[in-house]
Write the structure tokens for this entry.
Amino acid sequence: MGKKVLIVMGSDSDFPVMEGCFKLLNKFGVEFEARVASAHRTPDKAITLARTAKENGFDVIIAAAGLAAHLGGVLAANTILPVIGVPCKGGALNGVDALYATVQMPTGIPVATVAIDGGSNAAILACQILALNDEELSSKLSEYKKSLEASVEERDARLQAKISEL
Ligand code: RP5
């Protein structure tokens, strides 16, 4: 399988938010490349990454940025690949600024925005997009959903045990 997911981060300081994303993509066996490029500090680099992503073999882009987070929008403006935005917490507004900047895109240029610090969900959403044309990945996602169900049942059992001890 070639490189499938391009991850662009506004800064390496966004790494803690994106660690879960990298881990999940590894778990699902999806290849990715992660780069730092800023919509404000290195606009040419960010635009070039977006414009060349398709020809470089990527199918989905994930953009992670904090503060006035225009990265997802700038990437989406320069590609027809789906762009998933991860607003990162930080600064005086604690990520609400990044959420609004990422999610409130004008008609025609969507950025599929996950929760503040939702790096893991960005990985899952990217895998769900790729799984449309990948049966093996589709099966892995189904297994993952089953493991979530199992963990809820374990939590339910723990709750019942705690209540019975009161
Ligand atoms: C954003 O500004 C980055 O995505 C990061 O979330 C935030 C702070 O960046 P650094 O000053 O740590 O490089 O562009």
Observations:
- The chain has a mean pLDDT of 97.
- The CA atoms of residues 72 and 79 lie 11 Å apart.
